[in-house]
Design a protein that fits this description.
2 copies of one chain form a homodimer. Chain A has 425 residues and is an alpha/beta fold. The first copy, chain A, folds into 2 domains: 234 residues, Aldehyde Dehydrogenase, Chain A, domain 1; 147 residues, Aldehyde Dehydrogenase, Chain A, domain 2 (3-Layer(aba) Sandwich). A 7-stranded parallel sheet of chain A has the order 10-9-11-8-7-12-13. Chain A has a 4-stranded parallel sheet with strand order 5-4-3-6, sandwiched between helices. In chain A, helix 10 links the parallel strand 7 and strand 8. The radius of gyration of chain A is 24 Å and the shape is globular. Chains A and B meet through helix 10, helix 14, strand 13 and strand 16 of A and helix 10, helix 14, strand 13 and strand 16 of B. Chains A, B: GO terms for molecular function: glutamate-5-semialdehyde dehydrogenase activity; NADP binding. Chains A, B: Catalyzes the NADPH-dependent reduction of L-glutamate 5-phosphate into L-glutamate 5-semialdehyde and phosphate. The product spontaneously undergoes cyclization to form 1-pyrroline-5-carboxylate.
């Protein structure tokens, strides 16, 4: 006999469909809350999470113990582990999202037609967002807060390693949200860790409006391959920094060092450096990286810069290392750099360092990535750094929203038409 | 032996992939043309189409003769048939699109960050658009013109019935576009009528950026079911008009008549009329429709309005008639109307006729359709009527673009970041 009799008679598809329908109904209530009501509910959720601190940390300790028993890597266990300080950080992030400007109800544009009808496009929530994530329990709170602030219901499906942490965080959030007038079903956590639930979410077209995967490349690749629901995501961040021959050497060296080594594991890290053949100080670009232990792999001309640069294979140009490894190519000017980027970029973030404004403008115009930068480190590719206050993810698709996505990317619009009896001739 | 040796060795998937790759390369050239260059190229395309008039009409006569021999319905043959006047209309429509405001390059928003970086979101073309359509040869020109004006390459796949017409129109357009500096591959017509080509387009993720189906419900349903590429479309227009009890009777009667009978075959036509139980003159709403031969199907209370109203089945409330047929329900006020619409609307266009502004505002807020109207006929649901100058289609999905979609909906954006050496702390 199952201890979860409510699921015995149902397929996973039926479970996901019934959760989604309940979420959609709750979402229609949430969508009509005012900005102050949503702010208050989120602050109550943050307060409830702080109150539940002992419970959440105890649940997290169970997850960490299981992870250690199962031999998870120390990096995975670190992502999973919570303490007082991290939990306060999660609660504080909810408070921050609570006071972000509310996109819902904003008038995108307005026009009066010659026949007197007045048309507006007005921002509305998308509906029900599905979040599929891995071991970081903070995603439970971060994603829920962004969805609630933008008036969307959310169906969360976290990783099995964090199951107790996620349940404890979710229970606390819902307690606070309900106190603030948000229906409990507006923020649901998948009640089973059956992996088939992920597949059912991905194919729930018409029930889930958008899926946001948060996790490693294999998760994102699976979601993109299987989804019948629109997906907001990026698979790779194969980001280039091109140092034009007239770049100011100190600036170029600082940007290159920061773009690669500030944090090597984030999606905005540089993975390929392109150096003009006529740039006067190529060694000044690679020396600080080599000195800090970064592995460099280059084409023949790049290898000539320093004997410590290993040969690059064909795969290197299409590899997201997420590590202290960098591929380096020497190029013959802007057109050669643009051609390399067009061929190898994953359309996440590509940057140029150059003094000539006309060269920079051509780079900004012709590179077709979600984010294109001039004289700045690609590590700025982040919703917080872009002034969005937070981010639900970074998208490299071509439709709906690109680059760092926060509240506006969680909305859509409808047309309002106000007439006075107009009929069409 | 095949007479088309270039396809012998290739699978349909390879053919579509090679067309798409050529289209993408050409699209990058097209994307960089200035607004005056795109305007000039489109006007040259319209001129070339006018010059090719005799050739196009001869090709069309072949299609019409084949359609008659194959026993196509007169409605289908009418959609297929061109004459001097219709062809001039197609050319004039290209001239109109040529001078529409260019969305590409527009700055959506801009901000300076505290560290001095300046961020802009700038509109860019989406890339390569796939258009899958049926028997109307005008779509070849309309869709191509909208794509070129918005800087997108396009891969057209028209219906077999119109194959000679489409080839002749396409050849003329390309002649004019090339004269104007647009690469020929920016506007490609699928060179085979093999139905597998449609399937190959629908699954060409990463090669085709968006598919727009133009045609009947079975085409749209197939595209939505099979596509692995984002689709911009609507399946149904199950549009409601709700007559609130305080509606001005002459206005209500005129709107209802227009919404149903002006043209019954368009997606903006009303398919269900909701009448408040306390509306003083329900017979005044239905009498003009009945007098013009419209078939009415009602619930029990609606049938009581007039003996000529037949009983409605459960399916009627979910049926898009596209004909002089209307389902009619009597409702108990705004909440009842909202509940009916939430259950049965296809999210295309729903309207209220009411005097009370607060009632109208609740309807506009709470109805979740792409277009929501107050005191106007749902037949206004059209890109031209909405001031967009044209439309590539009407969308009822929730992401990217909704309602009538024209040039802006054929663009996306990228982030431009202009720095002066900023590195991330």
């Amino acid at each position: 006999m199952s201890t979860q009799p409510q699921f015995v008679a149902s397929s996973i598809e039926d479970l996901v469909a019934s959760l989604a329908r309940a979420g959609r109904v709750a979402g229609r209530v949430l969508a009509r809350l005012t900005p102050p009501e949503k702010e208050r509910a989120l602050k109550l959720a943050a307060a409830a999470l702080r109150r539940a601190s002992a419970t959440v940390l105890a649940a997290n300790a169970r997850d960490v113990a299981a992870a250690e028993a199962n031999g998870l890597t120390s990096a995975m266990i670190d992502r999973l582990r919570l303490d007082e300080k991290r939990l306060e950080g999660i609660a504080a992030a909810i408070d921050d999202v609570a006071v972000l400007a509310d996109p819902v109800g904003a008038v995108i544009d307005e026009q009066a037609r010659p026949n007197g009808m007045v048309l507006q496009r007005v921002r509305i929530p998308i509906g029900l967002i599905g979040i599929i994530y891995e071991s970081r329990p903070n995603v439970t709170a971060d994603a829920a807060a962004l969805c609630v602030r933008s008036g969307n219901a959310v169906l969360l499906r976290g990783g099995s390693e964090a199951v107790h942490s996620n349940r404890a965080i979710h229970a606390a959030l819902v307690e606070g949200l309900v106190e603030g007038g948000v229906p409990a079903e507006a923020v649901q956590l998948m009640p089973t860790q059956d992996r088939a639930a992920v597949g059912a979410m991905l194919t729930a077209a018409g029930l889930i409006d958008m899926i946001v995967p948060r996790g490693g490349k294999s998760l994102v690749a699976r979601v993109q391959a299987e989804a019948r629901v629109p997906v907001l995501a990026h698979l790779d961040g194969i980001n280039h920094t091109y140092v034009h021959h007239d770049a100011e050497p100190a600036m170029a060296s600082a940007i290159v060092r920061n773009a690669k080594l500030r944090r090597t594991g984030i999606c905005g890290a540089m993975e390929t450096l392109l150096i003009d053949a006529t740039y006067p100080d190529p060694h000044g670009l690679v020396e600080p990286l080599l000195a800090e232990g970064c592995v460099l792999r280059g084409d023949a001309r790049a290898q000539a810069i320093d004997p410590r640069i290993a040969p690059a294979s064909n795969e290197d140009w299409d590899t997201e290392y997420l590590d202290a490894i960098l591929s380096v190519a020497v190029v013959d000017g802007l057109d050669d750099a643009l051609a390399h980027i067009a061929r190898h970029s994953s359309a996440h973030t590509d940057a140029i360092v150059a003094a000539d404004q006309a060269v920079a403008d051509r780079f900004l115009t012709e590179v077709d990535s979600a984010i294109v930068m001039h004289n700045a480190s690609s590590q700025f590719a982040d919703g917080g750094e872009f002034g969005l206050g937070a981010e639900i993810g970074i998208a490299t698709g071509r439709l709906h929203a690109r680059g760092p996505v926060a509240l506006e990317g969680l909305t859509t619009y409808k047309w309002l038409v106000r007439g006075s009896g107009q009929i069409r001739p």
